[in-house]
Amino acid sequence: xxxxxxxxxxxxxxxxxxxxxxxxxxxxxxxxxxxxxxxxxxxxxxxxxxxxxxxxxxxxxxxxxxxxxxxxxxxxxxxxxxxxxxxxxxxxxxxxxxxxxxxxxxxxxxxxxxxxxxxxxxxxxxxxxxxxxxxxxxxxxxxxxxxxxxxxx
Length: 153
Description:
The protein has 6 helices and no strands. It has helices at about 15-35, 40-55, 60-80, 85-110, 115-140, 150.
């Protein structure tokens, strides 16, 4: 995309989101490489990163929009092809979506949008069910509990 042989006129407006995604990935890789791995130091590093992020974003309403976009990206990255997922990925996808729906429900509530709040809560409740089903699937996989097929016998 930024290759001058492919685009001698340089990046175009339609390249913007792709390039921003590449920049975001580079930034996240840098943060990950700079984060120390001991539990105490990791928390300090994460808090320091969050402080810098919060200072840059500023507006709490904008922060919620950014977080919602991040959660959507996270869900799609956890489950890029949302066909049949292994239970741990299903639970992780659903957890990210539950957070999206919960934030959405809060925003709708703050705006006085009762129907929007109900829709978002319905999505969050469905996602919570998917989380529990995925966790149960993992328990079945490691032999902690019987699967549905075993319970019917």
